[in-house]
Amino acid sequence: MDCRIALPVIQDAGIRTPADHKEKCAVFGVWGDAHGARLAYLGLYAQQHRGQESSGIAVSDGAVLHAHTGMGLVPEVFDAETLEKIDVKGGRGAIGHNRYSTAGGSVSCNAQPLLESYIGGQVAVSHNGNLINCTALRRRFEEAGHLFHTTSDTEVIVHLLASPAQQKSPDPLMATLRHLQGAFSLVFLFPDRIEAARDPWGWRPLSIGRLPRGQFVVASETVALDVIGARFVRDVLPGEIVTISDRGLESRRFAEVAERTALCAFEHVYFAHPASNVFGQNVELAREKMGEALSREAPPPKSVDFIVPMPDSGRSAALGFARACGVQYREAIVPNRYVGRTFIKPTQTERTAAVRLKLNIIDELVRGKRLLIVDDSIVRGTTTKAKMDQLRAAGAKEIHLRISCPPIRNPCYFGVDFAERSQLIATGKTVDQIREYLGVDSLHYLSLEGLLSCMNEPARNYCTACWSGEYRLDPDHPEGEYVIEPEQMKMFG
After folding, report:
1. What range defines the domain where residue 135 resides?
2. In terms of DSSP bridges, do strands 462-463 and 263-264 run parallel, antiparallel, or are they unpaired?
3. Do residues 376 and 404 lie in contact, with contact meaning Cβ atoms separated by under 8 Å?
4. Which residues are CB-neighbours of 466 under 8 A, at least 6 positions away?
5. Which region, left, alpha or beta, applies to residue 478 given φ > 0 means left and ψ of -120 to 50 means alpha?
6. b/e map of 112-137 (b: 16 or more CB within 10 Å)?
7. Which of 205, 255, 384, 442 could form a disulfide with 400 if both were Cys (CB 3.0 to 4.6 A apart)?
8. φ, ψ of residue 442 in degrees (nearest 5)
9. Residue 272: inside a domain
10. What's the half-sphere exposure (Cβ side, CA atoms, 13 Å) at 163?
């Protein structure tokens, strides 16, 4: 059966958020190592930048699954004693998950991996992405009498897998995935195997690695493979299920690759680790290229004394910018390494406080100087304004701000927790109005064409909806085979 998706690009005109389940997280899995939980711990630690709200690890001893989850950073959830306890319960396989905060969803019940029992046995699930048909599916399950214990869309996947309709299928997991619409990179742990899958559009990254003794590993980013000493093998393909078991690695397809994939360009702009290769392209080098392109589009005034990066994610683009324009690069803003990423703090109060804690200005490098600041993006604008106010207070004579991506004017429904449209600083404002609000002397963004010119894949293969407003799928009206019709619900009970 041809499962190729052929849906039109949707021009957004005020689409409502379908559910509060947006998750930009880290997933990890390893099979065949006696200390899989320890490897999962390291793999999650390496991907801490992808989620700071909660963390968890599930393990299999070959017959039974056990899990430990909690709120906080990886080393806060897993101390030496806790890790030892869960490690000895494993021995065959382990999966892990870091979750990043979403408004209204920062509760312990949403911590993953989600461990459940059903007619097929036990399963644990780690999910990175966002299902746009989650609300409709959940409502139909609830109408059929199903009980939910979380507000996460991941639980809907478990209910689908456990339903009679899917269990009667020759391949229940494949049948389940065909009903999901949106962005998902999933790692399932069963007592005897790991199953990893990626949506047909390829929104979120998911890579396969191999340890020196032959065990296979999956992770959201290749930096996790590097940390545990695994060799990168390949990416999980869009529309593919990869099985990792005692037999090694096997593959099957649940859908063909979409005619136009939807690789998230914001992974390279901000979210991914600089050492990672995402969608076949190194993140650090991509960001440096963005800085070079930005320098060509918006050269610095001749009076500028220094190019200054906004730590940490603006550093790579600033290096490229300085190299291209020949202006001296100086680190005049020093980050506090013990404060997390401000973009993924759950409330604005926490984000603003974190900015003040996180960034320390070197007054001697700033006072009386004309600075060109390079940052990767502006979302709500309030934290950026706080940064600019700090520089003014330190005595900066001029501040010229350059942003290495276009203005973010639209929400993301496929895995990035951008604010609602009304809360995005660029929505309904000109660049000059934004400049005035931020209190800077000049402001320029990298054009969308300039950004896409820095990417390895053809421009048509990237999702740019947060900038362009062009969505591959309509979040309000999921279509096609991936939606379960009401008459099918009689088989769900």
Report:
1. 10-262+476-491
2. parallel
3. yes
4. 266, 408, 409, 410, 411, 412, 416, 418
5. beta
6. bbbbbeeeeebbbbbbbbbbbbbbbb
7. 442
8. -155, 155
9. no
10. 28
**Can you give the pLDDT at residue 205?**
97
Residues 244 and 290 in one domain: no
Q: Are 334 and 360 in contact (CB under 8 A)?
A: yes
For residue 409, what is the enclosing H or E element? Answer: none
Tokens representing 343? 């973009």
What tokens does 90 get?
Answer: 């494993």
CB 20 within 8 A of CB 102: yes
Tens digit of each residue's pLDDT (9 = 90 or more) over 175-193: 999 999 999 999 999 999 9
Let me know whether 229 and 95 are in one domain. Answer: yes
**Encoding tokens for residue 63?**
């017959």
Per residue in 314-365, pLDDT (tens digit) is 999 999 999 999 999 999 999 887 765 554 555 666 666 666 677 889 999 9
Domain count along the chain: 2
Structural contact between residues 167 and 158, judged by C-beta atoms closer than 8 angstroms: no
Tell me, yes or no, if 25 is annotated catalytic.
yes
pLDDT tens track for 424-447: 999 989 999 999 999 999 999 999
Q: Up-side HSE of residue 260: CA atoms within 13 Å toward CB?
A: 16
Distance (Å, whole) CA 233 – CA 212: 12
CA distance 420 to 400: 28
Give dist(CA 28, CA 225) in Å, integer: 10
Give the domain CATH number at 349: 3.40.50.2020
Residue with structure tokens 């909806």?
465
pLDDT tens by residue, 101-146: 543 356 778 889 999 999 999 999 999 999 998 888 888 888 877 8
Q: Is 202 exposed, middle or buried (0-12, 13-18, 19+ CB in 10 A)?
A: buried
CA distance 156 to 162: 10
Sheet with 231-235, side-by-side order of all strands: 65-71, 54-60, 93-99, 26-31, 216-219, 207-210, 231-235
Catalytic pick from 3, 25, 325, 454?
Answer: 25
Residue type, 293: A
Asked if residue 471 is part of any domain, the answer here is no
DSSP code, position 344: G
Type of residue at 207: S
pTM, 2 dp? 0.88
Tell the residue number behind the tokens 């020949």, with chain if given: 326
Q: For the chain, which ranges sit under pLDDT 50?
A: 1-23, 102-104, 343, 480-493
Instruction: Find the helix or strand (DSSP H, E) in which 258 lies.
Output: none
Beta bridge partners of 126: 187
